[in-house]
Automatic annotation (TrEMBL):
Keyword terms of this UniProt record: ATP-binding, Membrane, Nucleotide-binding, Transmembrane, Transmembrane helix
Official protein name in the record: ABC transporter ATP-binding protein
Compartment annotation: Cell membrane
Topology in membrane: Multi-pass membrane protein
Occurrences of domain ABC transmembrane type-1 (ranges): 16-298
InterPro entries referenced in this protein's UniProt entry, alphabetically: AAA+_ATPase (IPR003593), ABC1_TM_dom (IPR011527), ABC1_TM_sf (IPR036640), ABC_transporter-like_ATP-bd (IPR003439), ABC_transporter-like_CS (IPR017871), P-loop_NTPase (IPR027417), Type_1_exporter (IPR039421)
Length: 542
C-alpha cells in the first residue's frame, strides 16, 4: 500500500485539491439541512430573514455541493487514469526486460489478467481510497469541533459513531470477506489461464474427446470464482445494512442525549435540533469508507501482483552502454548452460566464419535450439562465452546485437493483422520490391499472390487454415527481410515438402558470401547446403 501511495507523489497537488473539494462539498451537504433548520427555528421565533436570503443560502449550498463533488471526482479520476497509464507503462517496460527467459515459465492467463484487470482495479485505490480516507479524517475533525461548540457530550457520541462507521465497518467487511478479495483476483487469473489454454489446445481437446473434462475444469474454477465473489458481495451487503443501522442508531442516540441535556438545562432546544440534524447528515464521508474492507483487499492483491512483476529481476539485462559491432563472424567457446536444473550444454565450442553456412545436426533434445537462443542472448551462458565479431554478446549493445541477428524458430508466430503487417515486423520501412524478394526467397510469394487480397489478406481471417509450412515460409521471409548479416535458422524446412525445401535451400545457398548462417536441422537434405556441419549429442558438440 505504501508503494502504491508512493506512485501518487507527483500528483500531490491534484490530490490536495481533490481533498479540499471533497471536504468543502461534504461541508455544504452537511450544513445545508443545518442552515435550513436554523431558518425554521428562526421562523418559529418570528425572526425569519427575507425569503430571498433564505432561498439564496440554501440553493447556493446545494449548487456548491454539486460543483465541488464534480470537481473532487474529476481530480480523483484524473489522478487515477494518469497513474494507471504510468503503471501500464512500467509493466510493459518490465515485460520487455523479462522476455523471453523470465516469461517462459509464467502462466499466460495470469499475466494477461495482471496486465488488464489488475491494473484497472488500482483505479479503486487511486480514485476511491486515498482522498475519501483523507476527507473522512478532516470531516471527523470539523464535525467534532462544530458539535463540541454546541455540546461536548454530543460531539463525543458523534465521534464514536464516525469511528464505528468509518473504521469499524471496513474492519467488519474485511473480517466477513476474509481473503475473498485475494482469492477472487487469483481465481480470475487462473480461470483466464485455463480458458486461454483450452482455446489454444482446442484441436487436441476435440481429437482426444477431452471436451467434458475440460468443461468440468472450467466449471470448477468458475464455481470457485463465483463462491469468492458471492462471499464478497454478501460481506458488502452486510456492511451496507450494518452502516445504515449504525447511522440511525447514533442519530437517535444524539437526539435522546440532546433531549436529556435540554431537560437538565445543559442545552437549548435549538441546539438539540441543530446537533441532531447535523449528525444525521454528516455520515456521508464515513459511509464512503464502509466498503473499503471488502474492496481494498482485492485492490491490494492486484497491487501485489503488479509489484511482483515490477520487482522481478530479468534473467538477461539489456545492454545500452556496451559496444556496437560490425558483424564479422561468430563463435562459441566452452559454453556450458542449464535452465536451472539439469545441464543442457556442456563445453560447446564452434566457429561460424563470416559468409559461411554452418550446420548443426543432432537428435531431439540435444540442445540445438538452446544454443541458437544463447547466440541471440535470450539467456546468458553459465560457463564459457559466445562472441560476435570477437566481442562477447553480453557486452554488445542489445540494439546492435538484435540488428546483427535474425532468428527463425521452429514455430512462427503470426500477429493478428495482414500478411504485409506480419512481414513488416522484421523491417517496418521495407519497400514492396524487398518484400517480394524476401517472399520469393522463402518460396511463399506464389501462395500470397494467389490469395484474393494478396499481401493484404488478414492472418486472423485465415486462422488455423494457414498450414505449418506456410507459416514457416512466412517466418523465413521475415528473416530474409530483416536483412541481418547473421541468420540463425532453427529447423527452417521441418514443415516443408521437398519442392518448397528445394526453393528455400537454393535461397540459403545464394546467401553464401553475403550472409552468415547457422543452420539447425536433422534433415540430411537440408544439411547438404552447409559448408561445415557440427554434430550435437547430449549437449556436446563434435
Ligand atoms: N525454457 C526451458 N526451460 C527448461 N528446460 C528447457 C527449456 N527449453 C528447453 N528445455 C530443455 O532443454 C533440453 C534441450 O532442448 P532444446 O530445445 O535445446 O533441444 P533441441 O536439440 O533443439 O531439440 P529438438 O530438435 O527436439 O528441437 C530439453 O531437455 C528441453 O526439455
Amino acid at each position: 500500500m505504501w508503494r502504491l501511495l508512493g506512485l501518487t507523489r507527483p500528483m500531490a497537488g491534484v490530490m490536495l485539491l481533490a481533498i479540499a473539494c471533497g471536504v468543502l462539498g461534504f461541508c455544504c451537504a452537511t450544513f445545508l439541512p443545518v442552515v435550513a433548520t436554523r431558518f425554521a427555528l428562526d421562523a418559529l421565533a418570528g425572526s425569519l430573514p427575507p425569503m430571498g436570503a433564505v432561498a439564496g443560502a440554501l440553493v447556493g449550498l446545494a449548487v456548491a455541493r454539486g460543483a465541488l463533488h464534480y470537481a473532487e471526482q474529476t481530480c480523483n479520476h484524473y489522478i487515477a487514469f494518469k497513474l494507471l497509464a504510468h503503471v501500464r507503462d512500467l509493466v510493459f517496460g518490465k515485460l520487455r526486460e523479462l522476455a523471453p527467459a523470465k516469461l517462459a515459465g509464467h502462466d499466460r492467463g495470469s499475466l494477461v489478467s495482471t496486465i488488464t484487470s489488475d491494473v484497472e482495479l488500482l483505479e479503486v485505490f487511486f480514485a476511491h481510497t486515498i482522498s475519501p480516507v483523507s476527507i473522512a479524517v478532516v470531516m471527523a475533525v470539523v464535525m467534532t469541533a462544530f458539535l463540541a461548540g454546541i455540546s461536548p457530550k454530543v460531539a463525543l457520541v458523534a465521534l464514536v459513531g464516525y469511528l464505528c462507521v468509518g473504521v469499524g465497518m471496513p474492519l467488519l467487511g474485511a473480517h466477513l470477506s476474509a481473503d475473498a478479495g485475494r482469492v477472487t483476483r487469483a481465481q480470475a487469473g487462473r480461470l483466464s489461464g485455463i480458458v486461454l489454454d483450452s482455446l489454444r489446445g482446442l484441436s487436441q481437446v476435440l481429437q482426444f474427446g477431452a471436451g467434458d473434462a475440460r468443461m468440468g475444469l472450467i466449471d470448477d474454477e468458475s464455481r470457485r470464482l463465483s463462491d469468492a465473489q458471492g462471499r464478497l458481495s454478501s460481506a458488502s451487503s452486510t456492511v451496507a445494512a450494518a452502516s445504515g443501522a449504525l447511522i440511525m442508531l447514533f442519530s437517535l442516540a444524539v437526539m435522546f442525549l440532546g433531549g436529556s441535556l435540554v431537560v437538565s438545562g445543559e442545552m437549548t432546544v435549538d441546539g438539540m435540533a441543530i446537533a441532531t440534524v447535523a449528525v444525521m447528515g454528516s455520515f456521508g464521508p464515513f459511509v464512503a469508507l464502509a466498503n473499503l474492507g471488502t474492496t481494498l483487499q482485492g485492490t491490494i492483491a492486484s497491487g501485489a501482483r503488479i509489484l511482483a512483476i515490477l520487482d522481478e529481476e530479468p534473467a538477461v539485462a539489456e545492454v545500452t552502454d556496451g559496444e556496437d559491432i560490425e558483424f564479422s563472424g561468430t563463435s562459441a567457446h566452452g559454453v556450458g548452460f542449464s535452465y536451472g536444473g539439469e545441464e543442457v550444454l556442456d563445453n560447446v565450442s564452434l566457429e561460424v566464419p563470416q559468409g559461411k553456412v554452418v550446420g548443426i545436426e543432432g537428435r531431439s533434445g540435444s540442445g540445438k535450439s538452446t544454443l541458437c537462443r544463447l547466440f541471440m542472448r535470450f539467456w546468458d551462458v553459465d560457463r564459457g562465452s559466445i562472441a560476435l565479431s570477437g566481442t562477447r554478446v553480453d557486452v554488445i549493445n542489445t540494439r546492435s546485437l538484435r540488428a546483427s541477428e535474425g532468428l527463425v524458430e521452429q514455430d512462427t508466430f503470426l500477429f493478428h493483422g495482414s500478411i504485409r503487417d506480419n512481414l513488416l515486423v522484421a523491417r517496418p520501412d521495407a519497400t514492396q520490391e524487398k518484400i517480394e524478394a524476401a517472399c520469393r526467397a522463402a518460396s511463399v510469394r506464389d501462395f500470397i499472390v494467389g490469395l484474393p487480397k494478396g499481401y493484404d489478406t488478414m492472418v486472423g481471417e485465415l486462422g488455423d487454415t494457414l498450414s505449418g509450412g506456410e507459416r514457416q515460409r512466412l517466418g523465413l521471409a521475415r528473416a530474409f527481410l530483416h536483412d541481418a548479416p547473421f541468420l540463425i535458422l532453427d529447423e527452417p524446412t521441418s514443415n516443408l515438402d521437398s519442392l518448397n525445401e528445394g526453393v528455400v535451400l537454393r535461397s540459403i545457398a545464394r546467401l553464401h558470401g553475403s550472409r552468415t548462417v547457422l543452420l539447425v536441422s536433422h534433415r540430411p537434405s537440408t544439411m547438404a547446403v552447409a559448408d561445415q556441419t557440427y554434430s550435437m549429442d547430449s549437449g556436446r558438440v563434435s
